[in-house]
From TrEMBL:
Residues annotated as signal peptide: 1-19
Record's keyword terms, sorted: Disulfide bond, FAD, Flavoprotein, Glycoprotein, Lyase, Signal
SUPFAM superfamilies: FAD-linked reductases, C-terminal domain, FAD/NAD(P)-binding domain
The species this protein was found in: Cucumis melo var. makuwa (Oriental melon)
Name of the protein described by the UniProt record: (R)-mandelonitrile lyase
Length: 548
C-alpha cells in the first residue's frame, strides 16, 4: 500500500510540472498579504478574549474567519505553520515532493493509516487540506443540499461560491490527454458534453482549478485577505487541547486551552454572545469534541476522560470515498496533464483521468543496455473513479496518540460494491472506445491490448464476482473522508452542537455524503455561508460584510 501511495504521489509530481503550461490564468497573482494577520502562538498572551474563536485555520476555517471579522474580533488557532514556511506547497511543481517527505511532526501534512490498512493524509498548515490537495474545484451536487438536514438559502449559497471563486479559482485549458479522455467519455455515453462548468452536472465537463496558469496555488489561506484587518488574529503552531465549558447558564462553551510550540498552555475565552467554532476537519473536529468530554459515555469513561455531554454520534458515521480504476502504460511519450475533466454518471459515480510520465533511472554498469543509457521514461494514463454517496461507514475513537484511530470499512456495504462495480465497468467501456485504441499495444502474435501498471482491469466485466473482487483488491482513498459530527446527530441545521451553547462545528466532519466530484468547493462555501448566516442572525440588516 505504501509503494502504491508513493507511486501516485510521484505521478502527481510530474502532472504538476506541465500543468503550469496548460491552464489559463483568470485570477490575480498569488497574494500573501494574509501574513499580516499571523502571529506565532509563542508570542501571544496566556489569556485573551475574543468575540469568536475558530479552531483550525483550514479550508472552512479561513473563509469563516474572514467573514466574521467584518464586524467582530476573531482569533484563529491553527496547529500548523504559515504555508510560506513550505514554498513547495505553494506551487504545483513542489507539492508532491513535499508530500513524499517523512512526517517529522512539522510538515504541512500529517500521515495516518486507517484500521483498514489504507494510508492517508490530513492538512497541518494554515489553509488546511486546500494547501496540500490536487486543486480540482467543482461545486456540490443537488443531493448534497437536499439530503443535508439544513434549510439552505440557495441565493446565499450562490453568493458564497462566487465570493470564493473570484479569489481562488481558474479555468484550465485542456492538453492532448485531457482532450482524448473527454472524447472517450462522450463516446462511452457519459453525455452530454457540458463544456466548462463549475456546477455538478451529469455528463462530461471541464472543472475549475485552484492552480493558476503559472502553477501557483490559491488555497483557502488567500480568503483571509478579505478579512477586516483590525479584527483578525491568526495564531499558528497553536494546538487546541480542549474546549472549556461552564454549567452556570446551561451547558456552554466559554473558551479553549491551547499549547504553543514550547508546550506552554494558553487560554482564550469568548465575550458575551461570542462563540467557539470547530473547523478542525473530519478527523480533528470529532477528535477534539471527544477529548473535551463530548461523545459516547462508555468510550470516554474507558479513557477516564471526564464526561461533559453524552452524545453517542460523535466520531460515528466516518466515511471515505474509495478510489477505483486502472493505470495504463502508454505506447508513446505524452505530455503530463492534471485532472481537468470529469465524467459523471447518473447515480453520482465520477471518473477522472490524468496522464503522467514516470522516469526510471538506469545504473551505468548495466551491461545489457547500450552504453551511456541514463534512463527510461514511461508515459502513463490513470483512470480514477469515485462515488459521492458512501454507504459503508466506520468510526473514530481516541487512544491518546497524536492521531485518533479511524476505520472506514471501505466497500463493506453491498451498495458500495455495486457502485464500484458499475464504475469499473464504465472504466472498461472507456478504455475500449475508438479514441483509446491509440493507447493499445500489439504483442508478438499481433494481438492488441493494454499494458496495465498494477492490476489489470477484469477481462470479463459481466462477471459481478470478478469485478467486485477487483474493487476489493485495489481499493484506496480519494482523500475525501468526511463525517464524525453529522448534521442532525452532533450539530443542528445551524451547525450548532446539540445540547451545548456557543459551540458550532463547520467543516467536512458535518457531511453525510461527499459533495460532488470533489469536496473543497463545498467546504469553502460552507465556511463563508455559515459566517454570513451568523452575521445576519446577530446583526440583522446591519450586517454588511467588510469589503463587500
Ligand atoms: C491529497 C489530497 C488531495 C485532495 N484533492 C482534492 C481536490 O483536488 N479537490 C477537492 O475538492 N478536494 C480535494 N481533497 C479534499 C479536500 O482538500 C478536503 O476535503 C478539505 O480540504 C477538508 O477541509 P476541512 O476544512 O474540513 O479540513 P482541513 O482543511 O483539513 O482543515 C482543518 C484544519 O484544522 C487544523 N487542526 C486540526 N486539529 C487542530 C487542533 N487541535 N488545533 C488547532 N488546529 C487544528 C488542521 O491543521 C487544519 O489546518 C484532497 C485532499 C487531500 C488530502
Amino acid at each position: 500500500m505504501a509503494s502504491l501511495f508513493l507511486l501516485i504521489l510521484a505521478l502527481f509530481t510530474f502532472q504538476f510540472q506541465i500543468g503550469v503550461l496548460i491552464s489559463s490564468q483568470t485570477i490575480p497573482n498569488q497574494d500573501d498579504s494574509y501574513i499580516k494577520f499571523i502571529q506565532n502562538a509563542n508570542t501571544l498572551p496566556t489569556t485573551e478574549k475574543y468575540d469568536y474563536i475558530i479552531i483550525g485555520g483550514g479550508t472552512a476555517g479561513c473563509p469563516l474567519a474572514a467573514t466574521l471579522s467584518s464586524n467582530f474580533s476573531v482569533l484563529v488557532l491553527e496547529r500548523g505553520s504559515d504555508p510560506n514556511a513550505f514554498p513547495m506547497v505553494l506551487s504545483q511543481e513542489g507539492m508532491a515532493n513535499t508530500l513524499t517527505d517523512d512526517d517529522n511532526g512539522h510538515n504541512p501534512f500529517q500521515r495516518f493509516i486507517s484500521e483498514d490498512g489504507v494510508e492517508n493524509i490530513r492538512g497541518r498548515v494554515l489553509g488546511g487540506g486546500s494547501m496540500i490537495n490536487v486543486g480540482f474545484y467543482s461545486r456540490a451536487q443537488p443531493e448534497f443540499f437536499k439530503n443535508s438536514s439544513v434549510q439552505w438559502d440557495m441565493a446565499m449559497v450562490e453568493e458564497a461560491y462566487r465570493w470564493i471563486e473570484e479569489t481562488v479559482v481558474s479555468r484550465p485549458e485542456l492538453g492532448p490527454w485531457q482532450l482524448a479522455f473527454k472524447e472517450a467519455l462522450v463516446e462511452a455515453g457519459v453525455g452530454p458534453d457540458n463544456g466548462y462548468d463549475l456546477n455538478h452536472v451529469v455528463g462530461t465537463r471541464i472543472g475549475g482549478s485552484i492552480f493558476d496558469s503559472r502553477g501557483k496555488r490559491h488555497g483557502a489561506v488567500e480568503l483571509l485577505n478579505k478579512a477586516n484587518p483590525i479584527n483578525l488574529k491568526v495564531a499558528t503552531q497553536a494546538t487546541v487541547k480542549r474546549i472549556i465549558f461552564s454549567q452556570s447558564n446551561g451547558l456552554s462553551a466559554t473558551g479553549v486551552l491551547y499549547s504553543d510550540s514550547n508546550g506552554k498552555l494558553h487560554k482564550a475565552t469568548i465575550s458575551k454572545n461570542g462563540e467557539i467554532i470547530l473547523s478542525a476537519g473530519a478527523i480533528g473536529s470529532p477528535q477534539l469534541l471527544l477529548s473535551s468530554g463530548v461523545g459516547p459515555k462508555s468510550h470516554l469513561s474507558s479513557l477516564k476522560l471526564p464526561l461533559v455531554l453524552h452524545n453517542r454520534h460523535v466520531g460515528q458515521s466516518m466515511a471515505d470515498n474509495p478510489r477505483f480504476g486502472a493505470t495504463v502504460v502508454l505506447p508513446f511519450l505524452t505530455r503530463p496533464t492534471s485532472v481537468q475533466v470529469v465524467g459523471t454518471l447518473k447515480p453520482n459515480i465520477h471518473i477522472e483521468s490524468l496522464s503522467t510520465i514516470l522516469p526510471f533511472s538506469i545504473s551505468p554498469p548495466f551491461a545489457l543496455l547500450p552504453p551511456r543509457s541514463s534512463g527510461v521514461n514511461l508515459s502513463l494514463a490513470i483512470f480514477a473513479g469515485k462515488f459521492s454517496t458512501v454507504s459503508s461507514t466506520g468510526s473514530l475513537r481516541l487512544d491518546r496518540r497524536k492521531n485518533p484511530i479511524v476505520r472506514f470499512n471501505y466497500l463493506s456495504h453491498p451498495d458500495d460494491l455495486e457502485r464500484c462495480v458499475e464504475g469499473v465497468r464504465k472504466v472498461g467501456e472507456l478504455v475500449n472506445t475508438k479514441v483509446m485504441e491509440r493507447i493499445k499495444t500489439r504483442d508478438l502474435e499481433g494481438k492488441m491490448g493494454f499494458e496495465f501498471l498494477g492490476r489489470s482491469l477484469p477481462e470479463n466485466m459481466s462477471d459481478y464476482g470478478l469485478v467486485g473482487e477487483f474493487c476489493r483488491k485495489t481499493v484506496t482513498t480519494f482523500w475525501h473522508y468526511h463525517g464524525g459530527c453529522l448534521v442532525g446527530k452532533v450539530v443542528d441545521g445551524n451547525y450548532k452542537v446539540i445540547g451545548i451553547n456557543n459551540l458550532r462545528v463547520v467543516d467536512g466532519s458535518t457531511f453525510s455524503l461527499s459533495p460532488g466530484t470533489n469536496p473543497m468547493a463545498a467546504v469553502m462555501m460552507l465556511g463563508r455561508y455559515v459566517g454570513l448566516k451568523m452575521l445576519h442572525q446577530r446583526l440583522g440588516q446591519r450586517s454588511k460584510p467588510f469589503g463587500n
